[in-house]
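User: Please fill in residues for this 751-position structure.
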């Protein structure tokens, strides 16, 4: 038998291929020796949302009801085969298993869209064109069939529990056991299935046509009718609504009785391990669009299918109503939030989607961008047009140019994971292929809000306006910027592993400051004593935070009571004195800050020793939290007083205090994790990226709301190391120095 050769699509931007998978009665009956996979490839035109109503109606009438397969490719080796139009086509093991499960769930021939078969993978031009149709394909499908992987006994138990709890049709006990050979049974079943399939196909196809017609008449998913979610509060509201609907679900009492004797903590952990954590489907990039664009989705496997909503309801009921933690629940929440918003005409910005999918993997790194284009709210442009002939670096560069042009800012360069980044990638281009959960907590907003910092001021210098699209076509590896050089790093703490408690990180930072006396005028014994008080308080917070399990930490911000707060002793009298000193610091700073915000910012070596001592204490404490009490709030004088003087008697439980405790601990984790303490040559103090080195420059680039660390190369170009917190330069102070003539504007070409 010869190999299958693809015939070009008439129009790859509108047409698709569908696989008509031949029904196998032996597979449906669970026989051990099944027939080979056989099918046909047929071409159809999609009812694109960009077409007129009449054109879409015609295409809906001609398009058969089909399943769109969502699965993980797995091993790319094509070790199995399917016969297509009497020709042999190699497919992967996972695809072969998924098609077998579709066959087993069917009662007749079934139309399937599977990327590895329906797109010619060797034709880069076709692949690039078909990417833009992916969301249309999964939205037009009668059902998105999610294949999680090969069945296991533990996975079966999870699905049986979910089926019992929700009252849906789940896997049968005999699904994994091949039935006995019976020719009569095959003939009888075939005679029953084929007519039944015809009736069901007609009914189901008619029903799906009605759905498609309704979609044509009033489509919320049309690009020209959709709304881009730019308001962070609206996004949070949508996120809350998605969760709230699931949290409020309760099973019927009859169904709950069937599972009430289960160990719910055990089953929640089993679901987390078997269906989420161990399942690579939840780590895959493309599933975001595949599920996100779907009207109807189901989990395929074990010979039966189960609807997606049933999985969600069971997981949320366990996690919230029964308080049996499902640790990876956020993976389901993120997917459902995107699906709900898409089908309600709400689109997330591409940058938000990349952040949401930060832990997901793609076989081709370019798909970290391409896989999200169909469901983004951004308008398609030349920067984002999918093109598999471009390198990974150029695709990522173009995405970054898009974000810079969209925001008029250099903030999109900040807040990304840099450890382990691809060496060929220019330093200023984020490596979108990395797990962004491993990045330091971003100092710039990642949800559309305005930055709480204004390092580059409020005038034209706060905008980046050097983007020349014509020049970028030829010199996309470099980014021209300008700004102000503040100082060079003279001393920095050693980096520590990410799983080290923040109390241990602070101990390292304290040692760094204590050994920087030569750089810090006014470093007296009193200053050292106050620093030790800060360390003592931070250590107590750290011990408290480490005493909680992960589930308790997730619930702590909503003021769940916990007896473990009694482990925190009262703060000492000396820490009360420090909070008073912090108050005087703010009073002194407010008279000289260009923005009126509490900050000390003017040449520490020219201050008298008292003021410099105050600067050291204020700068150190602020740097521990990177000047924030949360991602949207600056650290205030009242926060510092409360931080240093919080008392927690063992016999009192105060939800407000516990909420503040959680807020402070999260802020300390965000401020110190994956950062180092730094002291500059002029005595400035701050928190910098772990990748920074002695001699690196701290600069304020025009168009960036926070200072950044740059490293000068021999040729005069600069490597972008990352953003940083430098106390005294977060609120336009560098701009004031420039106006006074003490800082000069410089060119920085990032490479």
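Assistant: Residues filled in for all 751 positions:
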């Amino acid at each position: 038998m010869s190999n299958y050769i693809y015939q070009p699509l008439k129009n790859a931007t509108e047409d698709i291929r569908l696989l008509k998978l031949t029904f196998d009665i032996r597979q449906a009956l669970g026989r051990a020796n099944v027939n080979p996979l056989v099918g046909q490839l047929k071409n159809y035109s999609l009812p694109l949302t960009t077409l007129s109503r009449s054109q879409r109606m015609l295409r809906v009438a001609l398009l058969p009801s089909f399943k769109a397969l969502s699965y993980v490719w797995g091993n790319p080796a094509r070790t199995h085969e399917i016969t297509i139009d009497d020709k042999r086509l190699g497919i992967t093991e996972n695809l072969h298993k998924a098609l077998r499960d579709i066959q087993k769930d069917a009662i007749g021939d079934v139309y399937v869209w599977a990327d590895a078969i329906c797109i010619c993978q060797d034709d880069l031009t076709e692949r690039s064109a078909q990417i833009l149709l992916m969301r249309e394909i999964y939205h037009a499908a009668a059902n998105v069939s999610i294949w999680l992987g090969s069945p296991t006994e533990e996975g079966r138990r999870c699905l049986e529990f979910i089926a019992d709890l929700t009252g849906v049709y789940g896997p049968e006990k005999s699904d994994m056991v091949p039935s006995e050979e019976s020719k009569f049974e095959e003939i009888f079943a075939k005679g029953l299935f084929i007519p039944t399939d015809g009736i069901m196909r007609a009914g189901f196809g008619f029903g799906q046509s009605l759905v498609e017609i309704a979609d044509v008449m009033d489509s919320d998913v049309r690009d020209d009718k959709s709304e881009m979610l730019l308001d962070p509060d609206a996004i949070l509201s949508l996120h809350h609504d998605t969760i709230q609907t699931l949290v409020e679900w309760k099973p019927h009492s009859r169904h709950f009785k069937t599972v009430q004797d289960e160990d719910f903590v055990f089953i929640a952990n089993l679901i987390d391990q078997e269906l989420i954590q161990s399942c690579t489907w939840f780590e895959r990039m493309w599933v975001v669009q595949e599920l996100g664009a779907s009207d109807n989705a189901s989990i395929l496997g074990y010979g039966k299918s189960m609807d997606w909503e049933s999985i969600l309801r069971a997981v949320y009921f366990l996690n919230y109503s029964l308080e049996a933690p499902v640790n990876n629940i956020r993976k389901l929440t993120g997917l459902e939030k995107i699906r709900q918003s898409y089908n309600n005409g709400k689109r997330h910005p591409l940058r938000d989607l990349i952040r949401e999918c930060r832990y997901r993997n793609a076989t081709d790194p370019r798909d970290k961008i391409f896989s999200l284009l169909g469901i983004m709210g951004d308008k398609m442009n030349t920067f984002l047009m999918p093109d598999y002939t471009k390198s990974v670096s150029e695709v990522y560069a173009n995405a970054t140019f898009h974000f810079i042009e969209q925001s008029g800012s250099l903030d999109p360069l900040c807040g990304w994971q840099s450890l382990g980044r691809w060496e060929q990638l220019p330093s200023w281009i984020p490596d979108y292929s990395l797990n962004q959960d491993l990045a330091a907590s971003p100092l710039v907003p990642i949800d559309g809000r305005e930055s709480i910092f204004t390092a580059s001021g409020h005038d034209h210098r706060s905008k980046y306006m050097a983007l020349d699209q014509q020049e970028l076509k030829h010199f996309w590896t470099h980014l021209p910027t300008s700004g102000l050089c503040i100082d060079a790093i003279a001393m920095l703490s050693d980096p520590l592993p990410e799983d080290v408690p923040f109390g241990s990180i602070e101990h390292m930072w304290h040692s760094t400051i204590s050994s920087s006396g030569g750089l810090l005028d006014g470093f007296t014994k009193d200053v050292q004593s106050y620093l030790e008080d800060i360390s003592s308080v931070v250590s107590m917070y750290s011990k408290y935070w480490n005493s909680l399990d992960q589930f308790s930490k997730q619930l702590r911000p909503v003021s769940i009571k916990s007896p473990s707060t009694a482990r925190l002793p009262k703060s000492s009298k000396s820490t009360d004195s420090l909070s008073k000193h912090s108050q005087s610091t703010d009073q002194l700073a407010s008279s000289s800050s260009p923005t009126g915000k509490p900050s000390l910012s003017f040449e520490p070596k020219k201050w008298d020793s008292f003021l410099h001592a105050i600067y050291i204490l204020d700068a150190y404490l602020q740097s521990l939290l990177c000047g924030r009490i949360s991602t949207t709030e600056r650290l205030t004088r009242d926060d510092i007083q409360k931080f240093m003087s919080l008392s927690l008697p063992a016999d009192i439980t105060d939800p407000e205090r516990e909420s503040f405790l959680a807020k402070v601990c999260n802020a300390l984790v965000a401020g110190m994790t994956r950062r180092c303490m730094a002291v500059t040559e002029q005595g400035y103090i701050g928190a910098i990226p772990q990748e920074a080195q002695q001699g690196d420059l701290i600069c304020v680039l025009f168009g960036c709301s926070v200072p950044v660390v740059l490293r000068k190369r021999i040729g005069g170009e600069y490597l972008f190391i990352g953003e940083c917190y430098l106390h005294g330069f977060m609120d336009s102070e560098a701009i004031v120095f420039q106006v006074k003539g003490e800082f000069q504007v410089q060119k920085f070409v990032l490479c």
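For context: The chain has 26 helices and 21 strands.
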